[in-house]
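Customer ticket, subject: "Can you confirm the structure for Threonylcarbamoyl-AMP synthase?"

Message body: Hello, I'm evaluating your service for our small team and ran a test protein. I'd like someone to confirm that this is what the system normally returns, since I don't have a reference to compare against.
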Amino acid sequence: MIERDPPPFLQPDAAGIAEAAAILDRGKLLAFPSETVYGLGADAEDVDAVMRIYEAKGRPATHPVIVHISPDSDPGYWVHELPHAARLLIDAFWPGPLTLILKRAAHIPDVVSGGQDSVGLRCPSHPVAQALLRAFDGFREGHGGVAGPSANRFGHVSPTTAQHVREEFGNAIPILDGGSSKVGIESTILDLSRGFPALLRPGHLTPQQLAAVLGEMPRLPDGSDASAPRASGTLKAHYATRTPLALLTADDIGAMAIEHAGERIAIVARRSAIGDIADLPNVVFVAAPEDPSQYAQALYGLLRELDRGDLERILIERLPASPAWAAINDRLGRAAAAFDDNLPVDD
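Agent reply: Thanks for trying us out. I re-ran your input and got the following:
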């Protein structure tokens, strides 16, 4: 059997954007860049196409996907009603890494919401994503929406480059190459579907930033909000490496590194917190960025690199419990939870 070279990545020029939009129009899957992570996209109003996302990822169909729209699109097309709070947040943060959960319009298929009566909407700021969405609008009379969860197998580390997507899916899915994602972690998800703002997933935008626009602090996730809609990235365990990963304090990292001195382990920590532990002979030390934004941008690429490093375990420093670090602690905590027990995982 002759092995064929992988197809080239679609380039972010006019021809590549046009081809990418045509792929979506034909009901096919397309991986595309955003400022957060790369998405696995399909026409959000094509039930069969969206089901192909679930099949490709191995993702349960009860888990909703986020619909991405262009800056020129009317979000009102997708929802039963666009409340005043949503308009304020759209004016303040779109295009950008904010997903709003709103009541779904009756004509929008419930496959994008996992059977719920809500829908997640986002307008990405990545220029290549915007060009793709505008081109797809041309096929849908200005109402093109692309369903796009992260372009990785269910439960794995999200991709932030086109090559990461290729590593996940091989040659099976065309990939529009937009370079490295600048934010590096998934969007903040805010629920507005129940008459009050509630944070479902932390992200680049903090609750304090949202509160400054809304005039009130969103409810924060504490495990007690049983009426909250299901949303991407909110299961207890996901974003998982294949190599066992633990999230620990600096002191506990030191104790575990000594305990497992016969193993080849990686430690990811801020140099200011870890001290001489980094110099142990069995340790592959990675100096984590001291700045939260830089840490977030590097996180998934680093986890993927360590996963290829023939390591027996990865130990990561638990970061400060402050708003600036909340989203990163959230992702790392869920990645570590995958190795705590037999919990289900999500993307």
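A couple of notes from the result: The CA atoms of residues 34 and 141 lie 23 Å apart. Residues 14-214 form a domain with the DHBP synthase fold (CATH 3.90.870.10). Feel free to reply with more questions.
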